Amino acid sequence: MTRLAILPILCSATLCAALPLGTVHAATVTLSMDVEIDQVAPEDAKMYRIGGHDLDRVSYDDNAVDPVTHRVRVTSVSHYIGGRWMSTVPADASALDLSGAPYRLNFVSSVTHGRPIVALFEGDTMRMAMLARPDFHVLIAGRYTINPVPLSAAEVAAPPPGADSPDTMPMRPGMAAPAGAAVPGQSPRKIVALDVDIVIDQLSAEERGLAIGQHHTARVFYDESRIDPATHRVALLHEQHTPMLIPKHLNPGQMPMSNAWLDFSGKAIRYHFAAAPTVGFPFPYFILFDEQAMRMTIRKQSDGTLLLAGPYAVNPTPITGPDIDATVASSDPPVPPWVTSIPMSKVPGKGEGGEPARSVGREAGPARDQ
Q1: Contact predicate 45/176, CB 8 Å
Q2: Taking the domains of the chain in order of start, what are their residue ranges?
Q3: Which of 26, 288, 291, 345 is deepest in the core (most CB within 10 A)?
Q4: Which 3-state string (H, E, C) describes 269-318?
Q5: What is the pLDDT at residue 164?
Q6: What are phi and psi of 186, to 5 degrees?
Q7: Is 293 exposed, middle or buried (0-12, 13-18, 19+ CB in 10 A)?
Q8: CA distances (Å), 13 to each of 3, 60, 153, 348, in order?
C-alpha cells in the first residue's frame, strides 16, 4: 500500500490540504499481528495455551520508510495483555521489513509488562518470544504473522478482534492443559543421546578462531520413553557442547532446557531449542535452534547482535550407555548469579587463553544430508 493510499485513513482531505507545502508530518501506521503459541511456561499456563493466540501491534512512521530497502525503524510494539495494550519503546536496531510479503519484524527490548521481561521478534524465523528476567527462560513463544492492511483510527482505539475469545489470553477455566504435562504411569526412563552438527555460514568478527565453513558440534539427551506417540516429539533433558562435553551434567545456568525438544515425525529429525543462558562464553548470549528453518543462531543478549549461525543436522544414530545415563543423573554445582562468564582457564580441556566452549569448531567437511 502506498503512502497516498494510506493518507485518507490518517487525515481528512481538508486537513491535509491545509498543511504548508514542503511540510512533512509524521504519518503513523499501525499494523496488527497474530502469534500462534507453540511454547508456554508452567507459570503462564493459566493465561496461555499451546495452539492459542497472542495479539500484538506494530507502529511506524510512513515518512521514514527507506525507499530503497523498504525498511523502517518501528516506533512501538504493543502487546495485548490483561485487557489493554502494553506498549514498548524499541531498541535502535529494531526494524520492520516491508519489502515483500510477509512483512518481517526484528525487535528486542527489555520491558515491564506486569513483570520484567524481554520481548523478542526475529525476522529470519518469523518467531516471537517473551523471556522472563533475570534468567531469560521462555514464558511464551510462537510464529507471528503481520497483517499488511493498516488499522484505521477507529480500529486502533477499539479492542482487537477476538479479544474476548477463549482462543486468546486470558485462558478460560476448563480449557485443555498445555502440551507436555506430566502423565501418571510413565514407563521407566531410557536415556538416549544424539549428535548435532552445525555448519557455520554466518560469523561475527568477534568470534575469533572460527571461520565460515567450520563445524560446530553438540549432543542432546532425551528420555525415549517420553516420546509423544501422537506428535512424535520429546522434551530434551540436556545439551552439551562437544567434543568437550560442556556442561558435563545438568546445568540450568549454562544450559537452560525449559524450551527444547526433538521432532521425529519426518525424514530429518528437527531440533527446537531457545534459551538465554545466564552464564556466557565470554558474554551472555541468546541461542536458537529453529526446527522449521533447521538453523542455529547465536546472538548477544546485550543488543541482539548476531555472533554465528548456520544450518544443522541431527545424526539419527542413538548413543546409549552408562556415561549417557550419568550425564543426566546429576547436576553441576550451581553458579552464583553474579557470575556471568567463565574464565577460559576453567573450561575443561583448555588451558589459559583457550577458546570458549561455545566456539569449538573443526575443519570444514561434508554436512550430513537433511
Answers
A1: no
A2: 3-157, 191-359
A3: 288
A4: CEEEEEECCCCECCCCEEEEEECCCCEEEEEECCCCCEEEEEEEEECCCC
A5: 66
A6: -65, 150
A7: middle
A8: 14, 22, 15, 70
Q: What pLDDT score was predicted for residue 296?
A: 95
Range 212-247 burial, b when 16+ CB lie within 10 A, else e? eebbbbbbbbbbeebbbeeeebbbbbbbbbbebebb
Residue 342 confidence (pLDDT): 55
Range with the poorest average pLDDT among 29-43, 77-91, 138-152:
77-91
Whole-Å CA distances, 218 to 119, 240, 242, 247: 27, 6, 5, 11
Instruction: Reply yes or no: is the peptide bond before residue 243 cis, omega within 30 of 0.
Output: yes
Here the cell at position 1 is 500500500
Provide the pLDDT confidence category of residue 340 given band limits of 50, 70 and 90: low
**Residues forming a β-bridge with 254:** none
- The candidate with the shortest Cα–Cα distance to 124, out of 311, 360, 358, 314, is 311
Provide the strand spans (E) within 53-136. Answer: 53-61, 71-72, 74-81, 84-88, 95-97, 104-112, 116-122, 127-132
Q: What is the pLDDT of residues 292-311, one digit of tens each?
A: 999 999 988 888 889 999 99
Q: How far apart are CA 263 and CA 228, in angstroms?
A: 10
User: pTM of the prediction?
Assistant: 0.46
Q: Which three cell numbers stand for residue 145?
A: 504473522
282 prior amide bond cis, ω within 30:
yes
